[in-house]
Write a structure and sequence with these properties.
The complex is a heterodimer of chains A (182) and B (564). Chain A is mainly α and 182 residues long. Chain A contains five helices and four strands; from the N terminus they run H-H-H-H-E-H-E-E-E.
């Protein structure tokens, strides 16, 4: 009886030590859930969610501080993905957070005074230019976050929706006309 | 006799090839204007190198290739470029693309043609020549032919595709019947460039005249090519399937034929290679079948850029024709309008009517009979793919190898529920591609955002370091001054704060001196009256300042009034 007890205690101590060592040895850096959420987010870094970028929003979701329906650029599909990832119910967008068609910023080079305010605002360094030199958007890098629009003192930045072209055209989902049968 | 192999599935639709093979190839007359798109090939669109209003000769380069996978575009005849603008092209989206409009002068005058002797050419030089001549695969995909020579893999077998398995299309059949010699010469050039000995020419056995003509041409040329009649079975003309039938080698999923030592060219491509090398003619025309609901179905040799409406008019469409299909009835796409131009990939145009192609009955639910799986030449599970595509479950569709689907339409052909399966697959494929691009863009944005944050952090640190360094330097200087002060015994009681104050005072004095030196120049040479006036103004100003100061300590005058 006593022997069995001792064996159990020894085992518990041994396993405890192994687990304790493993938790130090194989510690996971960062929050893996937040990283998974970050991978689903569209990386526009627009701050429409109220957080200063996609990563902070992902952290907030992972901690349970933020809702999953705060990211308009991700669209409804983004919410679906987040809901699936987190195992929660789908939640529609709120009134003032509706997704907009994708767009890229455009600088009217005639009006630009070269103040660099937009360059400082751009979260992905997609604006080229220098002080008192004309600025321009690197369209392929622009995420369409609109953060450069408010700081511009001469309102020379506009958001141009991305038009459908041959290069980004997609086949449509097949739809069929139903015929009336009396 | 070559032993033939077989592939899984396949169907036997009615071929309808007899109609358009009754009369020989006819040269289509010069149209009133040609519309030449700059994107006629897989990959990047060509870049225009001509100006509006410029006179061009036949075969003159008007669009040069951009990037790796791209090809050249040439003027199909001599004339004047009247516009370079967005115009509707033969694409199911009906979206416009950049095209050059060429008004022919009627002379059809060739520019400089540079025939080459292929035996003295290295594979590299030939590749460059084909790129210059705008040679692309004429089987339908329009993949730049030069790219197929650049693969650094050893090719053991060259397969020449004359199968032409899709119903109605007969352009390759007629080409082989009438121009077999040119094709064989083209094959010899490709064989030379690839450095292979074994050449297999696969032709479906429903084209006995083409087989005979090709055999005759091969015999005359004394090249050891093998003309092989392959069983008629759709889609036996798909490159991977023809390779399987001829060599028994299956090209694995996601691999290229060159990965298994085989390269495949279409017969029409071989012919254009011959024209390009031995006559120096770039690709400016092709054979196209006009068939279906027309009075005189036949093949035309037409210039690239000829509006389809002109070709169709030559064959006289019947009254009830209501739409046109480019390509065959299985894989072709409906033309958005009949006046769009012929491109390098256009092998056939079918006039369609409701009588010829009755509208399909409404699709019924899938009953999972798996007849589609029985005919699928790629051995996929079309019923599963359909299930995933229609429920937007793209990850699962990819797991079931959606991208191996060649969109041949055999599954939809046999489907008892009339489900347009290929439309679902095309939808799923383009959605997956778009998502891939989005994902890549998101990854790039994340990377750039993270780097920006890192950069801002680094700049902050550098600034702090610089500041710290300055402070250190200042402290050292101070220590040095203190030491001299101690050494000269001028003021032994001076503590650190006093030295600081002294330095500030000295800096202020320097600043005052500088301000005095920078006096405005227009006040240097003044008359006494002007000086008096200025003094009066200054006095008034001082008075106003005094008044303002008296008005209240907390109610300071606005800043700009001081400057006035």
């Amino acid at each position: 009886m006593i022997t069995a007890l001792w064996i159990m205690i020894a085992l518990a101590a041994l396993l405890g030590m192994i687990l304790g060592y493993a938790s130090i040895r194989f510690r996971v850096e960062g929050n893996p859930l937040a990283e998974k959420i970050d991978a689903v987010l569209p990386q526009t870094q627009c701050g429409q969610c109220g957080y200063p970028g996609c990563k902070p929003y992902a952290d907030a979701i992972a901690k349970g501080e933020a809702d999953i329906n705060l990211c308009p650029p991700g669209g409804e599909e983004g919410i679906h993905k987040l809901a699936e990832l987190l195992g929660v119910e789908f939640k529609p967008f709120g009134e003032n957070a509706q997704p907009k068609p994708k767009a890229v910023a455009f600088i009217d080079e005639q009006t630009c005074i070269g103040c660099t305010l937009c360059i400082q605002a751009c979260p992905v360094d997609a604006i080229a230019g220098a002080a008192k030199q004309m600025h321009t958007i690197i369209a392929s890098e622009c995420t369409g976050c609109e953060l450069c629009v408010p700081p511009c003192p001469v309102d020379c930045i506009s958001m141009v929706p991305i038009e459908e072209q041959l290069t980004n055209w997609k086949w449509r989902y097949p739809v069929f006309k139903l015929r009336q049968t009396s | 006799m070559t032993r033939l192999h077989s592939f899984h599935g396949g169907i036997h639709p009615l071929t309808h090839k007899k109609e358009s093979t009754q009369s020989p190839i006819m040269s289509a007359p010069l149209p009133a204007q040609l519309i030449v798109p700059f994107r006629q090939h897989a990959g990047e669109a060509a870049k225009p190198v001509v100006q509006v209003g410029e006179y061009v000769l036949k075969g003159q380069l008007i669009g040069e290739p951009v990037g790796m996978i791209s090809s050249s575009v040439h003027a199909p005849t001599s004339g004047t470029i009247t516009a370079i603008e967005m115009q509707q092209i033969a694409h199911p989206s009906a979206l416009p693309d950049l095209c050059a409009t060429l008004v022919p002068d009627g002379k059809d005058e060739w520019g400089v043609r540079q025939p080459l002797s292929y035996r003295q050419l290295s594979s590299d030089e030939l590749q460059k020549h084909l790129r210059r001549c705008g040679i692309v695969g004429l089987g339908g995909a329009a993949f730049p032919s030069d790219m197929k020579l650049s693969h650094p893999v050893v090719v053991n077998t060259l397969v020449i595709n004359g199968a032409e398995c899709e119903p109605y299309i007969t352009c390759d059949d007629m080409l082989m019947r009438e121009r077999a010699e040119g094709i064989v010469r083209g094959i010899e050039i490709l064989r030379h460039a690839l450095g292979t000995d074994s050449v297999l020419i696969g032709i479906e056995d429903n084209k006995p005249q083409a087989i005979a003509a090709m055999q005759r041409a091969v015999d005359d040329s004394s090249h050891p090519f093998k003309v092989v009649a392959v069983p008629t079975l759709y889609p036996g003309g798909s490159a991977k399937h023809l390779i399987k039938v001829l060599t028994g080698v299956e090209v694995p999923s996601g691999k290229l034929p060159t990965d298994v030592g085989v390269q495949c060219y279409n017969v029409a491509t071989a012919y254009t290679v011959h024209r390009a090398v031995e006559h120096g003619e770039p690709l400016v025309s092709r054979i196209v079948t006009v068939t279906g609901n027309v009075e005189q179905p036949r093949n035309y040799e037409a210039l690239i850029g000829t509006p389809f409406s002109e070709l169709v008019a030559l064959s006289v469409p019947k009254a009830d024709t209501n739409r046109y299909i480019m390509g065959g009835p299985m894989m072709g796409v409906e033309l958005p309008a009949v006046n769009v131009p012929l491109v390098k990939a256009s092998n056939c145009v079918i006039a369609a009517s409701d009588a010829l192609f009755p509208p399909p009955p409404a699709p019924m639910p899938c009953i999972r009979c798996t007849r589609c799986a029985q005919v699928c030449p790629v051995e996929l599970q079309p019923q599963e793919l359909y299930w995933f595509a229609q429920s937007h479950n793209f990850g699962k569709a990819q797991e079931y190898d959606l991208f191996d689907c060649i969109e041949c339409g055999a599954c939809a052909y046999v489907c008892p529920s009339n489900i347009p399966l290929v439309q679902y697959y095309r939808y799923a494929k383009s959605e997956i591609r778009a998502r891939d691009l989005e994902k890549r863009a998101a990854d790039l944005a994340r990377e750039r955002h993270e780097f920006r944050q890192f950069r801002i952090e680094r700049e902050k640190q550098e600034k702090a370091e610089r500041l710290a360094q300055k402070e250190r330097a200042a402290a050292e200087a101070k220590a040095a001054t203190a030491a001299t002060v101690v050494a000269t015994q001028v003021d032994p009681t001076a503590d650190a704060d006093d030295t600081q104050q002294m330095r500030i005072d000295a800096a202020l004095a320097r600043a005052k001196e500088q301000a005095a030196a920078a006096m405005p120049k227009n006040t240097e040479a003044l008359t006494p009256e002007q000086r008096a006036e200025i003094e009066a103004i200054e006095a008034r100003r001082a008075h106003i300042h005094e008044l303002a100061a008296d008005a209240g300590a907390d109610d300071e005058p606005p800043k700009h009034s001081q400057g006035n």
